[in-house]
Design goal:
By secondary structure, this protein is an alpha+beta fold. It has helices at 17-30, 60-65, 72-84, and strands spanning 4-11, 36-43, 50-57, 91-96. It is built from three helices and four strands.
């Protein structure tokens, strides 16, 4: 089985930065699912307010089933996040592990 890395990169409005960080702290405590090996959020070193969420799944199946496992609180936090992100700044990447 191939691992999957899914990332979401975006720019947060500077005036919403602290609110964003508060939401992310809560999300990091809540985002758990079967097959999810890790969830981290990073800020680009020389570009303030440019963040990237990285999800690592142990299989393609776990990745495909991830949205089915969301609870109400996570959905609410994700909606809040979308209001803090600058339009048209979001980029999604899905990487599949290469097996020999």
């Amino acid at each position: 089985m191939s691992k999957v890395i899914f990332s979401i990169r975006y720019h947060v409005f500077p005036e919403r930065r602290q609110e964003y960080l508060d939401v992310i702290r809560e999300l990091k405590n809540l985002v758990k699912a079967e097959g999810l090996d890790g969830y981290s959020v990073y800020e680009q070193k020389n570009k303030p307010n440019n963040f990237e969420e990285i999800y690592v799944f142990n299989s393609e199946e776990a990745f495909e089933n991830f949205d089915d496992n969301q609870d109400e609180r996570i959905d609410l936090l994700m909606t809040k996040l979308s209001d803090m992100i600058k339009e048209q700044s979001t980029q999604y990447t899905t990487l599949l592990e290469v097996n020999n």
